[in-house]
Write a structure and sequence with these properties.
The complex is a heterodimer of chains A (about 140) and B (about 300). By secondary structure, chain A is of the alpha/beta class. Chain A is built from five helices and five strands. The chains are: A alpha/beta (about 140), B alpha/beta (about 300).
């Protein structure tokens, strides 16, 4: 089973729309309604991507929460759905790897961005596997 | 006069990597592309290619040709039971792997003269001189490995041995004793660290003869094997071929023609037990699909 994508939204309808779109791309999805659920899910699943819907509120608390999540999982990509005025606030923060998508909600666009993020991470992981194997072979062959 | 056949050589530097199975099924895949194919078992003294095809009564074998019981190699070609595909079964006489030079040259001459479109040669495991010499007659060499470290180590060592042998033939033919000596020293990089890479070796060659260094580079550029990583189960194993390619480029100045993978296939064991090639038993299996892709790659 692949690592699931975490989706947070305070509004279930939007969460379900996003989940549906992601499932069509073959992703497993974990939906969270509360911040503590998000943090638990991030720690449990070591997910590659978190989709964070800020439609129903964005303030300092949300931004600090996102920054804390970034420090828990440095490799995770954040995809934040926000109103245009909020995007500037988010981008000024220290969220690490992130993409901001403006309202209105475009589930296809969200799914596309998730897929891009996952593909990039998988390519980096494969490259790292090749490098490790190569180093081992070099050692055995005494090519150092 | 018809065009000479395309010779493909299947090499597995380590035993048990699946080269004979790939050879047999690749022969079938190419025959289904409307090419006449002859699959030749050159695993001298340990022949088993005919078993993969499910052929029990082999009749005359390669041994009979080598020991002059039949005059022409074409007399040993037998039907595989499939259209456009013949087999030259190998023998099982111990010690036959140590062919004399004359016998080897006679075999090579007649092999290359077979009336067919494609000749696929299943060579023995290891990097003996015979294996490397038969590889050198092929238009394309396919090196079969698995993703495991021991197999990859053998693959790299095989490639290095093959390249050194080609260079050795070349320098010997040109009468360059000094370059032969340099090549000999390059085989022991721990004692000769300035010859650790092919690039550094060629640098030393060019001090003796710039034209020979250029000839050596040409020889290297013509050696472009296809690496096949067999029995791939996990995505991470697909990178095994790339790891070898990177080492080849950095230390031997070599490029692969391509790197291909063949997936682990549970259906293969059943097919082998039934002595039926999986390309016949299940042409839509993962193994068959991957071999068909290899067939397309080698012919184009």
């Amino acid at each position: 089973m692949s690592t699931p994508i975490i989706v947070f939204s305070a509004e279930m309808t939007r969460a379900n729309i996003i989940r549906q779109a992601l499932r069509q791309y073959g992703f497993d999805v974990v939906v969270c309604k509360a911040y503590f659920e998000v943090e638990e899910a991030v720690r449990k699943h070591a997910s590659l991507v978190l989709v964070f819907d800020t439609r129903w509120g964005l303030g300092t608390k949300e931004i600090r929460f996102l920054e804390r999540l970034s420090s828990i999982s440095t490799e995770m990509t954040l995809i934040v759905l926000a109103k245009p005025w909020a995007i500037r606030l988010i981008e000024a923060g220290e969220m690490g790897k992130g993409v901001c998508l403006p309202e209105p909600l475009d589930p296809e666009l969200v799914a596309t961005k998730v897929k891009e993020a996952v593909c990039q991470k998988e390519k980096r992981r494969e490259s790292s596997d090749t490098d490790t194997l190569q180093e081992r072979l070099k050692n055995f062959l005494r090519l150092d | 006069m018809s065009e000479p056949a395309t010779v493909l050589a299947i090499v597995g530097p380590k035993g048990g990597v699946g080269k004979t199975i790939i050879c047999a099924n690749l022969a079938i895949a190419i025959s289904k592309m409307h090419k006449r194919v002859i699959a030749v078992d050159l695993d001298l003294g340990a022949a088993n290619l005919h078993a993969i095809f499910g052929v029990r009564d082999s009749g005359p074998t390669l041994d009979d040709f080598i020991f002059n019981k039949v005059k022409h190699l074409s007399d040993v070609v037998m039907s595989s039971g499939m259209e456009r595909l013949g087999i030259i079964p190998g023998g099982d006489i111990p010690g036959i792997a140590n062919l004399t030079y004359q016998k080897k040259m006679k075999l090579i001459r007649q092999l290359c003269s077979l009336e067919t479109d494609v000749i696929i040669v299943d060579l023995g495991a290891g990097s003996s001189n015979n294996v490397i010499d038969f590889l050198s007659i092929a238009r394309k060499g396919l090196l079969v490995s698995t993703a495991e470290v021991p197999s990859l180590l053998n693959t790299y060592s095989f490639i290095k041995t093959a390249v050194f042998r080609r260079l050795s033939f070349h320098f010997r033919g040109k009468g360059y004793a000094e370059l032969l000596d340099l090549l000999e020293r390059a085989k022991d990089p721990s004692s000769n660290p300035h010859l650790k890479t092919m690039e550094s070796f060629l640098g030393e060659v060019s001090k003796v003869s710039p034209s020979e260094a250029e000839s050596a580079r040409q020889i290297l550029s013509n050696f472009r094997p296809i690496i096949i990583v067999n029995r791939v189960e996990k995505a991470s194993e697909k990178s095994a071929g790339e790891a070898i390619q990177n080492l080849m480029q950095k230390y031997l100045n070599l490029d692969c023609s391509s790197i291909m993978t063949v997936r682990e296939d549970p259906g293969l064991r059943r097919a082998i037990a039934r002595m039926k090639p999986i390309m016949v038993e299940n042409p839509a299996s993962p193994f068959s699909i991957d071999v068909i892709e290899i067939a397309h790659r080698v012919l184009h």
